[in-house]
Description:
Layout: E1 3-7, H1 10-15, E2 29-33, H2 44-55, E3 59-63, H3 70-77, E4 82-85, H4 90-100, H5 102-111, E5 115-119, H6 121-124, E6 158-160, H7 165-177, E7 182-184, E8 189-194, E9 197-202
Parallel strand pairs: 1-5, 2-3, 2-4, 4-5, 6-7
Antiparallel strand pairs: 1-8, 8-9
Helix pairs in contact: 3-5
Amino acid sequence: MKRLLLSSRGSYITDGACGLFDRPRNELRWAYVMTASKSVPDRTYIELHQKRMDDLGWNYDVLDLDGKTPDQLRAILSDKDAINMEGGNAFYLIRSIRQSGFTQVLHEFLQRGGIYCGASAGSYVACPTMETATWKIPQRFDRHGVTDFTAMNLVPFLIVAHVTPEIEEMVRPKMEQAKYPVKLLSDRQALQVRDDEVELLKDTNVLPKELGG
């Protein structure tokens, strides 16, 4: 069974209501992929997110995809139950995913029962394309030469993260022209995916600006 949790912020992964996990999250063995944060101007959110995981007693290893081979990734993930793919620069992240061969390794991980959790950029790269990363503020991040926005195609829709009423109005024309359906996520929302079943989750206890992601 394919199990995914796709959110706007990493705080939903640590604290949000979700029925994907068969035991408490601090009893799972996690790989925390921080690669997307390597090309952002302010990495404070990474420090906040790691502090939150530490405070919650999470068992996790930090994973950088850069410089890794598929076999190295398989070895790292061999004893893991779940992946926490943190947000940041989606262009840098998809480049690292391609260079490391992560997509194939992730498919194998999901097939054996692993859970993929993505926040922001980590959600964008789970879609058929990550084109929505260009919709709001196209020049916010260095695109690192990425012109092909094809992503990992774990779900048959696109995601726009960090949605507010103003952002929804801004992206609506692009949604109408997109090849794939588009799902909008506020900072307190996430999508729970079990194979072909997709459920929109909302947890008002998740404070969007107090935790990183």
